[in-house]
Amino acid sequence: MLKVSNVSKAFNAGTPNEKVVFEDLSLHIRPHDFVTVIGGNGSGKSTLLNLIAGTYAVDKGKVELNGRDITHLKEYERAGFIGRVFQDPLMGTCSDLTIQENLSIAKRKGAKRTLRRGLTESERKEYAKLLEPLGLGLEDRLTAKVGLLSGGQRQALTLLMATLVKPELLLLDEHTAALDPKTARKVLELTQQRVEENQLTTLMITHNMRDALAFGNRLIMMSEGKIILDISGEEKKKATVKDLLDLFEKSNGEINDQMFLS
Amino acid sequence: MTLVLTSALAQGLLWSILAIGIYISYRILNISDLTSESSFTLGAAVTAAALIRNVPPFLAICLSVLAGCCAGYITGFLHTKMRIPSLLAGILTMTGLYSVNLRVMGKANIPLNQVTTILTNLSGLLGFRKDRDAAIILGVIVILIVIVFLVWFLNTEFGFMIVATGINDRMVTANGVNSDRIKTAGLMLANALIALSGSLVSQYNAFADVQMGIGAIVIGLASVIIGEVFLREKSFIIRLFGVVAGSIIYRMIVAFAINSSLVNANDMKLFTAILVALAIYLTDFTRKRGTKRAESK
Ligand SMILES: Nc1ncnc2c1ncn2[C@@H]1O[C@H](COP(=O)(O)OP(=O)(O)OP(=O)(O)O)[C@@H](O)[C@H]1O
Ligand SMILES: [Mg+2]
Asked: How far is it, in rounded angstroms, from Cα B176 to Cα A78?
């Protein structure tokens, strides 16, 4: 499915600001895995997603998806089969376009943009039906500009857009972090529902350890560009927040020790 | 006075196509595209060079539009492929095109009062004695065609991407579209319209001059701003007509200011620049767009 093999990445290489994020990182994800990713600030979580999505190019190594080498595909080319939701609710939608126009753009993902109508009558009905189960009342506001929506509504819409054309991989980077707890819960439930309904292979970064344990079938913890924990199935079900916190602290401790020794 | 007003109306109509082009780059694509100054002249230069060689006026206009597309493409290429900031990319194209325009014309000024233009054609056809009347009719026809085209085009799948790119190009990328190509296409469209305007204005003024594009952006912006004062939240088509109205009102203001000796004709550019600066300041022109943009263009 997703195979990240021996990937290295440094920012500002060759300058005094050089920052090596990954050295020889590998990660394999099986079909229909729902992987939650945790780790401290700057541990490389977002960079990993950016390398998979093609926002940044890898320095070394390979990224494969469903047997196809995508290492050298541009971000917009990969976007045809990778769905993505960003942390910033403003990022995934277009404020000056209406809800239905935003959805229509997502609906044509992976297809060539032609001179046909950007939005057809039958689509409108389809979108109303799609939005109804969210319970946010958006189905009655199809012609409202997205700029008028709340952060949570926009994030729910972005999630729908990212999965409207079934992606081979769904990347979520702290997509509920900017929302209030109640809204965050709602968007997470929607996430779960979309993932299950469509059997999506998913990578979800979160800062919330409880969510990381509650969602998905596999959990990885990152520290300093390395995967320091990788649990799935029963092992993940048995893990507690305390286990994670202990490990989290220990990993930082170890690194500090090493830093003292060297 | 009616002479002054009809003349201002004719100028306003023909220049409004420039304003619509500026509207596309500045308001829709969110790019301050300085190419406009030279693509306006380019449109005039190509038309003049063609007309003095007895090319049929309609064909000359088509050539101008094509040339405008090329100018937009060059800026798009510099900006998206060579990663030059859009403002500088426009300046580079503008500077380079100054020489190109001189080459195309062969000299700094070509008079067009002895050649057949689209206006003499139209006057002959409709039996007008004055080119001014033909210019008004022509202006209205061309504006209607342009607006109908734009409303159709921006409602296509491709058009949606142009609008979306101007607001949030990361969203466009995330939906599998190369926003660089969209930006380039948008710049081509804007500069094609601006060159069309230059072509028509030169035929109306009966000359093409290598300097005639100087200040074109500010004039276009003035029209856009005047037109938007009352029509900010209206539909796209209304806003386009607002831009046309803005262009005509701007010409009326200019005509009034010069005729009443309030402003010396030579000071007109300064007057316009101050007007635009104040208007942008007062209407919070760019910030009101509703979207926080990750990077400034
Ligand atoms: N574009 C960039 N240029 C330079 N350095 C960068 C860039 N992006 C990330 N980094 C650096 O790479 C490291 C990893 O950053 P990354 O954003 O992947 O961390 P993260 O795990 O997502 O952290 P957070 O939890 O704060 O989001 C950090 O030290 C960061 O400063
Ligand atoms: Mg991050």
From this structure: 7
Q: Which residues form the domain of A253?
A: 2-81+167-261
Give residue-wise pLDDT tens across range A243-257.
888 888 777 644 444
Residues with CB under 6 A from ligand 1: A 11-12, 19, 21, 39, 41-47
Sheet of A19-29, strands arranged across: A19-29, A2-11, A60-65, A68-69
Question: Judged by CB atoms within 8 Å, which residues 48-107 of A form the interface with B?
Answer: 74-77, 79-80, 84, 86, 90-97, 101, 104-106
Q: What pLDDT, on the 0 to 100 scale, is given for residue B261?
A: 82
Ranges assigned E (strand) in chain A: 2-11, 19-29, 34-39, 60-65, 68-69, 82-85, 169-173, 202-205, 218-223, 226-232
Q: What is the mean pLDDT of residues A206-225?
A: 94
Q: For A162, which residue in chain B has the nearest alpha carbon?
A: B175
For residue B150, which of B295, B270, B266, B21 has the smallest C-alpha distance? B21
- Domains of chain B, start order: 2-296 (1.10.3470)
Residue A260 has pLDDT above 70, yes or no: no
Q: Where are the alpha helices (DSSP H) in A111-216?
A: 121-131, 151-164, 181-198, 209-214
Token pair of B100 as six digits: 């190109």
Chain centre distance of CA B91? 16
Q: Does B164 touch chain A (CB under 8 A)?
A: yes
Q: Contact B18/B216 with Cβ under 8 angstroms?
A: yes
Ligand 1: residue whose CA is nearest its atom 22: A46
Query: How is residue A113 annotated by DSSP?
Result: P
pLDDT tens digits along B98-154: 999 999 999 999 999 999 999 999 999 988 888 889 999 999 999 999 999 999 999
pTM of the model as a whole: 0.91
Q: Is residue A71 part of a domain?
A: yes
Report the CATH number that the domain containing residue A60 is assigned in CATH: 3.40.50.300
